[in-house]
UniProtKB/TrEMBL annotation:
<dbReference type="GO" id="GO:0008237">
    <property type="term" value="F:metallopeptidase activity"/>
</dbReference>
<dbReference type="GO" id="GO:0008270">
    <property type="term" value="F:zinc ion binding"/>
</dbReference>
<keyword id="KW-0482">Metalloprotease</keyword>
<dbReference type="InterPro" id="IPR001930">
    <property type="entry name" value="Peptidase_M1"/>
</dbReference>
<feature type="domain" description="Aminopeptidase N-like N-terminal">
    <location>
        <begin position="53"/>
        <end position="221"/>
    </location>
</feature>
<dbReference type="Pfam" id="PF01433">
    <property type="entry name" value="Peptidase_M1"/>
</dbReference>
<keyword id="KW-0862">Zinc</keyword>
<dbReference type="Pfam" id="PF17900">
    <property type="entry name" value="Peptidase_M1_N"/>
</dbReference>
<dbReference type="InterPro" id="IPR027268">
    <property type="entry name" value="Peptidase_M4/M1_CTD_sf"/>
</dbReference>
<feature type="signal peptide">
    <location>
        <begin position="1"/>
        <end position="28"/>
    </location>
</feature>
<dbReference type="GO" id="GO:0006508">
    <property type="term" value="P:proteolysis"/>
</dbReference>
<dbReference type="GO" id="GO:0016285">
    <property type="term" value="F:alanyl aminopeptidase activity"/>
</dbReference>
<dbReference type="InterPro" id="IPR050344">
    <property type="entry name" value="Peptidase_M1_aminopeptidases"/>
</dbReference>
<dbReference type="InterPro" id="IPR045357">
    <property type="entry name" value="Aminopeptidase_N-like_N"/>
</dbReference>
<keyword id="KW-0479">Metal-binding</keyword>
<keyword id="KW-0645">Protease</keyword>
<protein>
    <recommendedName>
        <fullName>Aminopeptidase N</fullName>
        <ecNumber>3.4.11.2</ecNumber>
    </recommendedName>
</protein>
Amino acid sequence: MRRPRIVPQLTTAAALVLVGGLATGSVAAPAAAPQVPDPYFPADGNVGYDVRHYDIHDRYRFGDRHLEGVTTVRLVPLRELTRFNLDLLLDVEAVRVDGVTAEFDKPNAHELVVTPATPLAQGEPVDVRVRYHGFPDRIGWQGETNWLATGHEVVTMNEPHMAAWWFPSNDHPSDKARFDIRITTGAQREVVSNGVRVGRTVHGRRATTHWRMTDPMTTYLAFFAAGDFRIERGRAHGQRYYNAVSKRLGASAESYALHMLRRSARITAWLEEQLGDYPFSTTGGLVTSIDPGFALENQTRPIYPSWIYPSVVVHELAHQWFGDSVAVARWRDIWLNEGFATYLEKRYVEARGGPSTNRWLHRQYASTPAAHPFWDLEIADPGPRHLFDTAVYDRGAMTLAALRNRIGNADFRRLLRRWAAVKEGGNATSEQFERRAERVSGEQLDAFFDAWLRTGQRPPNTAAYGL
């Protein structure tokens, strides 16, 4: 996620959730696994099973903004389950498990509790089919009202929560899955989503567009947008791309936005030089006429407001490696997403002849006194209300710039490429990255990382801390 230039903190960042989403009949995950429910958002995610695939069929009506759908969740129980939870804010009509009607309950707005006719056997995949409906734009939950829509356009984008407004899921980054997304709406509208467009079927005044994401993806990165879009697709710089710009922007803004999106393939190719092979089969982006106040790294196809500019494109495309392919294991590790993407913004400026990343680091350090609140936040554990604070972005990037100074360019380049390759398609913690940095460099870095990530103080101005 990239904050706008004039807004220091995302206004829709979630407040602390007080209700847990546990799966009855399950056991705690092994110690090496991500902690679910997440301490930051205890209602998110459910233990006891692993989702492999989402098959989403949603129908959206622009007139009254009504959504109805049927989603089949293929999951594998991690032990015998007598019942389990999914995360969904819409009203539920029916649930079937492997074709058999199941009992269900919604003890609160967020939790769908499913009781299958017979217990689910450990390790045996099952298909859970949920039928649901509602008005997403009328739904608020724990201070969030995340549905973005007008009478002409709808875009499902937000972080850390979005999925529960339009499909049932195990809504935590630690449970990635593959997706088929089919959206039915007026035939005059274009529908854009993650991955590759499989097809579009017109039936009278409506049309169904089918998108497929074949690489594992976290639930908050899944999206669809429907509206009046100008589309460009093709190949450039070795990348397959699909770009979409809202025609509601007006001719001048539409032309500018498309010009910015055309840079995506070239920037992706530059990032490959820094990080290794692009982890997905397609790139591109979408510019919406709705201004949510931020851009978001939706997998394969970031979404931008009309204030798109080059560094925000670099930021969101860098997230395809760090945030999407390598996703956080816990929300407290968000600096692994935002710090890395911000660092690569600075590297891109340097590569194009601008100030060096090292110069930026020293300028930021010198201009921010030790007593400044900028240093107060422990960015390795910022808390749920501070996930998108400026310090997470900028001090995260400063940590990486300082690490590059500490271990040297060659080891740092090797570290980023190795990290992206080893963790591709999975999840990671800050501690894992720190240990990887020590293995690659052969140096003991506990004091370095503690100073930059955990003390809530300005690091000492010495070479040991990359300064």
